[in-house]
Amino acid sequence: MPAPVICVSHLGKSYGPTVAVEDVSLEVEEGEIFGLIGPNGAGKTTTMECVEGHRKPDRGQITVLGLDPLRDAAALRQRIGVQHQEAHLQKRIKVWEAIDLWSALYSRTVDTGDLLGRLGLEAKRNAWFMTLSGGQKQRLFVALALIHDPEIVFLDELTTGLDPQARHAIWSLVADIRSRGKTVVLSTHLMEEAERLCDRVAIIEHGCVIEMGAPAELVAKHCPERQVVFTSDGQSVSELLKRELGSDSVVSNGTTHTLRGRGEEFVTDVINLVAREHIRVRGFRTELPNLEDVFLKLTGHGIRD
Amino acid sequence: MLKGFWKLTWVETKVFIREPMGVIATLGFPVLIFVVLGRMLGTGQVGAVSSQEPPFNVPVLAALVIAVNAVISLVAIISIYREGGILKRLRATPLSPVTILGSQVVIKLAFTVISLALLVLAGRQFLPGAMDVNLVSFTLALVLGTLSILSLGFLIASVVPTARFAQPITAAFLYPMIALSGLFFPLDQLPPTMWALTQVLPTTHAVSLMLGVWEGSGWGAHWGNALALLAILGACTALSPRVFRWE
User: Fold this and answer.
1) How far does the CA of residue B161 sit from the closest CA of chain A (Å)?
2) To the nearest whole angstrom, how far is the Cα of A90 from the nearest Cα of chain B?
3) Contact A103/A111 with Cβ under 8 angstroms?
4) Domains, chain A
5) In chain B, how many domains are there?
6) Is the pLDDT confidence value at B51 over 60?
7) Spatial separation of the C-alpha atoms in residues B9 and B101, rounded to whole Å
8) For A246-294, how does the pLDDT look when each residue is reduced to its tens digit (9 = 90+)?
């Protein structure tokens, strides 16, 4: 197993009477996409800013690439890239000027022309920041975060406020960053985003990590239930299903039958049963639980509540 | 990091110039005051348009307006950058906070000198003899005064809550300072406490120094004002990092 590039232990941070981070401990391994997920105000951004060295924690230890984020801030800034939540640049700065300015600040930089091409910003080189769309702005911020070829990239709520198309474009960019061997730490309140992108996630609620692991593992652990919904015009299908699967697992509503079970094998079992009994099926779909369900189960509320 | 400083200064200059209203106000307003008031009141110079003695020194007022404009513009930029997270984003780079703020100060001082040059040109055109002064000495006095008032501007920028309030709050600080600068009436007419207050304001010393240079008594007779401006600059600069908020 690769060595962790980020170690956080018992981080705590308050703003006056408001506790932003109560107790956060986590480790991020080299080359993974690690997600901090939770509702707004859970403490994701504060955790990230403490790790980046932009905020002084009240309690706890943080090591990033073997460095202390506060004491070794100057050295760390050359090795990490950040993108802030809801960030802006000067309204009338041109895309190429921002890229050019940022390149001048670091001792080592990537080929900026290639970077703009990869992020699809070539045509916007001479555009003012204020004229860019939301997705273009975020791509520019990703470019600025990557310009010095950092080892770890921090992306805070990267796709918030973007339309689905722009969001998908950003997702493939993030996956591309990992494929170049970088470590990515991102925060999001979109469970779909976390599930699509992250190798591992930490679920944060009220300033504490309440669960951590690979999305699929968390789903298997907390929400093993599977659901199959199919429609069939066949006679006494409901009785047959109840006999085979147990009456508690079957809810029939006219020709629509909903079957509930647990474990990896459940869907296969249902398919085999349907085939064996020659049930004629008009529609068939499976409903698998996801991170959203895990979150709901662990916290008792939805992530947007 | 010097490379980053000049690059940032150049980019910020271009960004500033791209907003025509800001540039016109910065460069045009002092010239307008100078020419209009100079024509109306006269400038007290030999060969001036109006021969009567003006109630106050119009060129020094115009120069003071240049300085105050620079401060208002600086506070506005800082508050907009803070509110938009631009300061925060810049601070996440290897740029030091001093570099980020320093480049803004350099730009403001550059525009101060340009404004003064325009004033001189406008004077030649519309108010012959009105800018008959040792220009190097006067420019230095204005730059020192502006720098000192700018340092106070940093403190104001620290307490301005949002960009929306930047302009009115700065004006609320600065306009009374202009009124109490000693340009319009002798300050010894004021009650002792008010007088003491005026002596810690940079505008008072800036005006006194510029009037001195204007009247030909020069730096030697006004080293106290120059020293006071430097002291205010030092004090505000030392205090700024303690109170300044980046976000």
Assistant:
1) 17
2) 7
3) no
4) 4-214 (3.40.50.300), 224-288 (3.30.70.980)
5) 1
6) no
7) 10
8) 888 899 888 899 999 888 889 999 999 999 989 889 999 999 899 999 9
